[in-house]
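Worked example

This section walks through a single chain of length 128. The input is the sequence exactly as stored; nothing has been trimmed or padded.
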Amino acid sequence: MSKKGKKVKLSGSDDLRVDLWGDLSQASEPKKDIRSEAFSAKSPKKYRIKGRLLKSGKGLKPVTEIYEWPTHMSNRDLNVILLKMKQSFGCGGTIKATNKSMELQGDKFNQSEDYLKELGFILIRSGG
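Given that input, the structure is written out below as tokens.
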């Protein structure tokens, strides 16, 4: 016959869960979603970027191109800005990796100018 070990009762609560990370645990704080973060330029300096409306070579459909972003901005920052712009304008868009330019489908220059002004950028119309 096999012998079964007796259960040992501990004094105190029956909760034996142990937090291995102690105060480093961030279980109480909700995780932030990358998409919910909007880039905000906290410095008082306003950055100048250029934008233009393209029609040729795109099936004669207008495309708003925003280019010459500041060099300190990462691709992640541009993706966050583009995602928020696409959601608020109701259009499609992409980021061209070769020259860090952003393309929005449709004539969205005036809307993007207002949106980027809130983030601390000055959008300058270039071209026609």
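What to look for: The CA atoms of residues 88 and 115 lie 9 Å apart.
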